[in-house]
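Hi Y.,

Following your request, here is the sequence exactly as I used it, all 281 residues.
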Amino acid sequence: MSIKNPPIILSASRMTDMAMYYPNEIIESIKTRIQKGQKIHTVVLWTKHPSSLLNGDLHDFLMNLRTTGIQLFIQLTITGMGSRAYGNTKNGELFYPESNVPDNKNSLNFLPEIIELTGKAERVRLRIDPIIKIKDIYGKIWSNKEHFQEIIDKAFNSSIRNFSYSFLESGAHAKVDKRFSQIGFEIVSPSAQERIEFQKIIHDISTEKKIHVFSCCVPHLPQSRCIDGYLLESLHDFQWATSKKEPKSRIMCGCTGSVDIGGWPPKKCGSGCLYCYSRPN
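Below is the corresponding structure, written out as tokens. Let me know if you'd prefer a different format.
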């Protein structure tokens, strides 16, 4: 494969769970690119709904892609918040930060099949992202940090060795702060001491289990790559080369350049994640 004009990395999608809500658009977009002669190195699929990759036309299409030399890489997000209530809104209703996302036990059970879909456990990254800390109108703190170790332990037992996380930060996106405020919650950024303590936890887990836990765009921590051209090259069955350019789409983001087929503006996502920065308001 030519290094001068290397095959591209497709991403579907950072902003919308296309595997769950727009599977046919994934299929058609990739088909169109192939028909136009575009060379594809890897398709990176982001989802909180692992079952969406394991049945129907999308599953069959992805399995066929692998026979053509196109690699699959799955970014699977399991935060522990799926279908779990975190107190009440100021109107007294139960608050679900991820109202339409499966619970972590359900999602973790699909890991063996997700690995089989990609062909290697190294082609799956489990994202415990974001870790949130929020305060309700009564001053009570709610967080999904308590699920971090449990999720890693169970994923580790299914051969997953690569993880990433970030923190929900107050002030990072004004519309997200407003969204929480409107229902009676306040986003609380972790203190400097909490960050130090959490890093120690990660260091201890990583050392004990010999795993990699990357931070995604976390201030004062090393830059990492969710889409990593170097890694994707090393994992590719035929070691195809791809571009390693880093467009720096976000501060502290080290991701290799890719083409997100979700389009702009972001498509409506049905997962119901209140913290999502790609929601319009």
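Residues 8-83+99-131+144-169+191-260 form a domain with the TIM Barrel fold (CATH 3.20.20).

Thanks again,
Q.
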